[in-house]
Specification:
single chain; 20 helices; elongated; disordered N terminus; alpha/beta; 5-stranded parallel sheet; 45% helix
């Protein structure tokens, strides 16, 4: 039975480590609140449950799944805003989702997949009181489909929620704000657009559903609120039907049979928009500014697989193009922007779902061979550089969620109570991290030294004193032979051993007295094995452990100065507080 005092101590120690990890994430990955600027989007984000059926039954009738032994075919993430943010992130644009979600399995599913797509989840407010939005999609054998939606907590993002949860993020972090007329209440949309205006950043409004649907069926708000939304946004992206309805709502005298070019010009005039982009299914899209309008023909498509997210991907491409080149000023600029947006839409429809897939990069390069990273004008030669940065940030952001608090508490208690020194050990890149960790500990007055894992069996076993010293092994795989053998030998001599590994079920984790594991299975590293993100995570955990030990042991500035009197650090420590 665990005593109440020990339970409290474990909670405190693990919470302190979590705070240390958050500090490390901020400093190590560029997520510093003072520096990070993102395209922030607020709107639909759902889990789509896909079912294949023989025929979609009519009301009152029964139907059958295509496979009598399988109902749910797959689960995908989607939603108007989630989709276009993921396509912008696909091009290297820093993006983040503003959302309310549940602390349920669906919310975790969305957040996990967003991290893989490179979309920041740091501004998502997850709570056990909420349930995450979901859709159930029934697809019959001829491809026709029916969709049943439950917006759940997204329908709670009204003006008050925006001000409470998202306004600060927009003021401090936004370089562009996107939102929608689809699932968010119109009062919330207005608050988002107003927040973007106060932050002096571009706002983009996706009019995903016609005003009549938003007002009468979705019950998002009033006619007056729709008008206020479309006149407040800097950029409008309606589909054809929504654009025509908007003109009627705005009191335009334009005739029903007018061209989409005329519709775009009229929307610019009535709404005062800086840019209007109208999508029209497989046909030409229309882009217009106050001075000109152009028709942009979409590229040919090899195979139409799923058209669901085409408009969302189009908007993602629009964000990419605007971020690269700014708002268009000439017909040539409009055509270039339209070509980029159409390329993203065409890429999307050739895979299932509304977010990028492994095939998307190859398809997009066929349409835009001159550049795959359009977010800052760099060529594809920097794609590996930017992908690595994104992968490292994703791995770093996941650490605080993955770490097991009970393991942290036991791990730290053993190190803190060690009467001798901590002997860090490893081989290869993990060995270098272990060596740096020992060096950092000694610089703050905590006894530590490094032993190469291959040297234990060649005399260095004599360095470890049973009942006094503790040995810590770092191994991403958790199965490094030299580490496993040395740990076994040290345990046989009565020496306490610890392991930091990328797998909870590894040989080292099972062998050692205590272990601290992070999940390396989802990390994206070159060829699946070249250490990159795993080293970042190891360094972060070592830093967090050191910071916690500094607090626990009451390490003072004077102690550190005595250990490190030289160089710039020594000079800084010698300066009076």
């Amino acid at each position: 039975m665990v005593s109440p005092r020990l339970s409290v101590w474990r909670w405190r120690s693990s919470s302190a480590l979590t705070l240390s990890l958050i500090r490390c994430i901020s400093s190590s990955t560029g997520l510093s609140q003072a520096r990070e600027k993102l395209v922030l989007g607020c709107g639909s984000n759902v889990v789509d449950h896909i079912y294949n059926v023989k025929v979609i039954p009519k009301a009152g009738a029964k139907g059958f799944f295509s496979n009598p032994f399988k109902a749910l075919e797959k689960m995908l993430i989607g939603g108007v805003t989630l989709n276009h943010l993921s396509w912008a992130a696909f091009a290297g644009v820093p993006t983040g989702l503003l959302a309310l979600q549940g602390q349920d399995h669906l919310g975790r599913f969305i957040r996990s997949n967003l991290k893989k797509l490179g979309v920041s989840t740091q501004f998502i407010r997850a709570d056990f009181r909420y349930s995450t939005a979901q859709c159930h999609v029934f697809i019959q054998e001829d491809g026709e489909r029916s969709i049943v939606m439950a917006p759940t907590v997204t329908s709670m993002i009204n003006a008050e929620a925006v001000r409470e949860y998202f306004d600060e993020a927009i003021q401090e972090h936004a370089e562009m704000v996107t939102t929608e007329i689809s699932q968010v209440p119109l009062s919330g949309v207005l608050a988002l657009l107003e927040s973007a205006r106060r932050a002096n950043v571009l706002s983009i409004l996706d009019v995903d559903v016609p005003p009549s649907v938003a007002i009468n069926e979705a019950l998002l708000g009033s006619r007056e609120e729709v008008v206020e939304c479309v006149t407040r946004a800097d950029v409008l992206k309606p589909a054809k039907e929504a654009a025509i309805e908007l003109l009627e709502l705005l009191g335009s005298g334009i005739s029903q049979g007018c061209s989409l070019l005329e519709v775009a010009h009229e929307l610019i005039r009535l709404c005062g928009s800086k840019l209007v982009a109208i999508t029209n299914g497989e046909k030409e899209s229309i882009l217009a500014t106050r001075d000109t309008a152009v028709q942009v023909t979409p590229p040919s498509i090899e195979e139409m697989v799923d058209s669901t997210g085409a408009g969302d991907a189009f908007l993602g491409g629009l964000v990419v193009g605007i971020r690269q080149n700014g708002l268009p000023n000439s017909p040539e600029d409009l055509k270039k922007l339209g070509r980029i947006a159409n390329a993203y839409g065409a890429t999307c429809v050739q895979s299932v779902g509304g977010v990028p897939t492994p095939r998307s990069s190859e398809i997009l390069q066929q349409y835009l061979p001159e550049a795959t990273d359009l977010s800052n004008g760099t060529s594809s030669r920097l794609q590996g550089f930017q992908t690595s940065l994104r992968n490292d940030m994703t791995a770093a952001a996941a650490v605080a969620e993955q770490v097991d608090h009970a393991s942290v508490a036991r791990f730290l208690d053993i190190i803190e109570q060690c009467p001798g020194q901590l002997l860090t050990s490893g081989i290869g890149k993990s060995g270098l991290v272990a060596q740096r960790f020992a060096s950092s500990l000694t610089s703050v007055g905590i006894p530590a030294s490094f032993v190469h894992a291959a040297e234990w069996g060649h005399g260095d076993l004599g360095k470890a004193r049973a009942g006094s010293d503790v040995a810590l092994f770092l191994s991403n795989s958790g199965g490094t032979q030299e580490c496993v053998v040395a740990a076994s030998q040290l345990l046989a001599r009565g020496v306490t051993t610890l392991a930091m590994t990328g797998r909870k079920d590894s040989k080292l984790s099972k062998l050692c007295t205590a272990h601290l594991a992070y999940d390396s299975k989802e990390m994206k590293e070159p060829f699946g094995c070249v250490p990159t993100s795993s080293l970042i995570v190891q360094e972060m955990l070592c830093n967090a452990i050191m910071c916690e030990l500094i607090e626990r042991k009451g390490v003072t500035k004077d102690v550190v100065r005595m250990s490190h009197p030289g160089g710039a650090i020594g000079a800084k420590l010698s300066t009076s507080s």
